[in-house]
Amino acid sequence: MLIEMTCPNCGAAHVPTKQDLLKGPAFYRLCPDCRPVEPDTYRPQGSVMTRSGGYVLYATPRKESRGSCMIDDRCQSLAASGKPCSANVVDGAHCAWHSVSPEWAAKRRQWSVTGGKNRSNAARAKKALPDTPMSTAELHSWLGLMFKRVLTGKAEPNVGTACASIAKAMAELNKAIVTDDVLAELSREVAELSGRKLT
């Protein structure tokens, strides 16, 4: 369904065609008499022609002044969304993601590998680990806090039971670590004593 419009320049009523609508609002709002050029050659400033023959308008890329010339500092490629890429230029006309140079392709592969490693479950679990293990005194403090929360109804009893089970396992691990350290020290001393007897 076509709609009758009023030209903003002369006020004349006109009905834009489907082809006019495809060319964008800068074109179809004007009546045929006020349009600056022929429809086939008309291209709004800062636009890209679509496959259907219409134009998609976008903001003119920002430019940076270097001496007496103006240089574009934004990528000239289109993003996956179809909009112009807004990243900074690294090789004259394209950003790091759209550049075709082998140097930037290698950097993108390296970024992909690094990003994949950092997002892995093992890497995320390692980031969540504390720097030092909790001592028995810290476990005792946390269990006391959980006990009070269960008593006052601020925590569910099953959560308190789970915390107590985890704390028990952590305390046993602490004992095992201490036992391993003591055994290692004793075996080192036995090795030193047996070495002295042989000489």
Structural overview:
This protein folds into three domains: 5-57, no CATH class; 63-122, no CATH class; 136-198. The protein is built from six helices and six strands; from the N terminus they run ββααββββαααα. The protein has helices at residues 18-22, 25-28, 102-118, 121-128, 136-152, 157-198; strands spanning 5-6, 13-14, 47-49, 55-57, 63-66, 69-72. Strands 1-2 form a two-stranded antiparallel sheet. The protein has a two-stranded antiparallel ribbon with strand order 3-4. A two-stranded antiparallel sheet has the order 5-6. The relative contact order is 0.05.
Tag the structure with descriptive keywords.
mainly alpha; 199 residues; two-stranded antiparallel sheet; two-stranded antiparallel ribbon; 6 strands; 6 helices; 3 domains
Q: For the report, how would you describe the main beta sheet?
A: 2 strands, antiparallel
Cα separation of the termini: 107 Å
Mean pLDDT: 76
Helix content: 40-55%
**Domain count:** 3
Number of helices: 6
What is the radius of gyration?
36 Å
